[in-house]
Amino acid sequence: MMPMARDIYVKSEKLAKELGVKLLPKDITEFEVRSQEDLPSVKKLEENGITEILVSCPNWKVIPLENLIALSRKMKIIATAKDVDE
Asked: What single string gives the DSSP state of each residue in 29-59?
């Protein structure tokens, strides 16, 4: 099932307009989760006032995202994908 357009963000303003999706905020914090040890750093970002985070998990997908959701209280978590199938 394809996600709703409101759930898709792109970096290109032109592409966002063409597809009718959201433009990724330019000042968004990007974070890469490579292992379980990286997860506490996300909690620290939230404690320091970060409200949105762009997360990539190159080695694994579902588990770190579930853990990030469980760790955060108010932070909006946006996960990256290489393509539609991912």
From this structure: EEEE--SGGGHHHHHHHHHTT--EEEEE-SS
How many CB atoms are closer than 10 A to CB 63?
A: 11
Residue that the structure tokens 């597809």 belong to: 19
- Say how far apart CA 49 and CA 19 lie, in whole Å: 31
Say if 50 falls within a structural domain. Answer: yes
The pLDDT tens digits of the residues spanning 16-28 come to 999 888 899 888 9
- What's the whole-model pTM score? 0.74
In a domain, 10, yes or no: no
pLDDT tens per residue, range 66-80: 888 888 888 888 888
